[in-house]
Amino acid sequence: MERVDSAALKAKVVERVAARRTDLDALSLAIHAKPELSFEERFASKSLADYVATSGAAVTRGAGGLETAFVSESGKGGPLVAILAEYDALPGVGHGCGHNLMGTASVAAYLAVREVLDGLPGRVRLIGTPAEERGNGKAILIKAGLFKDVDAAMMFHAGDRDEIDPLMLAMVNLDVEFRGKAAHAAAEPHAGVNALDALLLAMGSVSALRQVVRTDSRIHGIITDGGLAPNIIPERSAARFMVRSPDNAYLNELKTRVLACFQGAATATGCELKASWSETCERVTTNAPLAEAFSRNAKSLGRTLDPRRQGDTHGSTDMGNVMSVVPGIHPFLAICDDGVPGHSHAFTQAAATPRALETMRLAAAALAQTAIDVLADPSLVRRAREAFDGGR
Ligand SMILES: [Zn+2]
């Protein structure tokens, strides 16, 4: 193939994203208006997959054994760029993580690259990735082989500032259940074993533990079952916790100490404890050469991404699992003023504003341009691979 004129292709993808503006905004707002939880993103998945299909690309639905995942691939041979679309929402706050913007941006980026693929070697693969908020959807798709042969994986995340290299922690979920014994809470309380008390003791222990935990790590949870009626000694209680740290070894230490809080409470109350840990959501490891390419492209479109702000974290993402198997990036782009917290009602509102939609389209163009960089520049693929190996 002749030398690729990247600049011309990059200008063209900006035009292609702009040409779809009405459709993209409508798609994103429709998904925002109909938030769906992890693994249940039927409307969002279908809306995005249908749009890809009507744009002329073949789509495989139910990819990797997940009903709400989908894949579309264009091009021939290598290199292979994966662009990831998230679209799940949160209980209670809807699209408080802005995934309506991110899923749509990735679809737009894919379609734009597809339209200039004639001038490029290699392939681009759009992967609709369900269940980021809960369930580690991407880990399931990794096991299903969807990331085999991928040279670069990319997406953007909506945020309250522009940040190229976010700190996102390794994380595990803990599901616990205490089993006690029901009895009349006034007539025969002595005949009961109180499972709610066990849980409250455990939560108190976890709170005490927090004081002596590294400030870069997090432990937090909710009660999902606190009993049935005040006049029955609760025979069952249940909770969901998350434990996070940037350091895998320390995360393992924390797991042991958090579990001990629950074990101790079981002993104290005479309850039985059932505890199960999820698989690990891996820490985000931004690939420097790919990040530099994305930053350069975003800058050419008018957005300057800052390095990580000391002491800040953005929670966790299953994109970390993808970045543990292939080189990848997960930059944040602001859709609102600095200081609006993610997973809040304010962020949900921000995810449907003209400012958010403008950021979404800019992200789409920057992702498309970065994909062009990967396809057009063999040295970028090599440097991304070297940085990835070096980061292991
Ligand atoms: Zn998110």
Structural features:
single chain, 392 residues, Aminopeptidase, Alpha-Beta Plaits, 6-stranded mixed beta sheet, 4-stranded antiparallel beta sheet, 12 strands, 42% helix, binds zinc ion
List the helices and strands and how they pair.
Blueprint: H1 6-19, H2 21-33, H3 42-54, E1 60-61, E2 70-76, E3 80-85, H4 99-114, E4 122-128, H5 137-143, E5 152-154, E6 157-159, E7 170-179, H6 195-211, E8 218-225, E9 236-245, H7 248-269, E10 272-277, H8 288-300, H9 319-323, E11 328-329, E12 332-334, H10 345-350, H11 354-376, H12 378-391
Parallel strand pairs: 3-4, 3-5, 5-11, 6-12
Antiparallel strand pairs: 1-2, 2-4, 7-9, 7-10, 8-9
Helix pairs in contact: 1-4, 1-11, 2-4, 3-4, 4-11, 6-7, 8-11
Please explain how this structure is put together.
- By secondary structure, the chain is of the alpha/beta class.
- The chain has 2 domains: 6-168 and 284-391, 3-Layer(aba) Sandwich (Aminopeptidase), CATH 3.40.630; 170-277, Alpha-Beta Plaits, CATH 3.30.70.
- Helices cover 42% and strands 17% of the residues.
- Strands 1-2-4-3-5-11 form a 6-stranded mixed beta sheet.
- Helix 4 (99-114) links the parallel strand 3 and strand 4.
- Helix 1 (6-19) packs across helix 4 and helix 4 packs across helix 11 (354-376).
- It is elongated, with a radius of gyration of 23 Å.
- The relative contact order is 0.18.
- Bound molecules: zinc ion (ZN).
- Zinc ion (ZN) is lined by residues 97, 99, 132, 157.
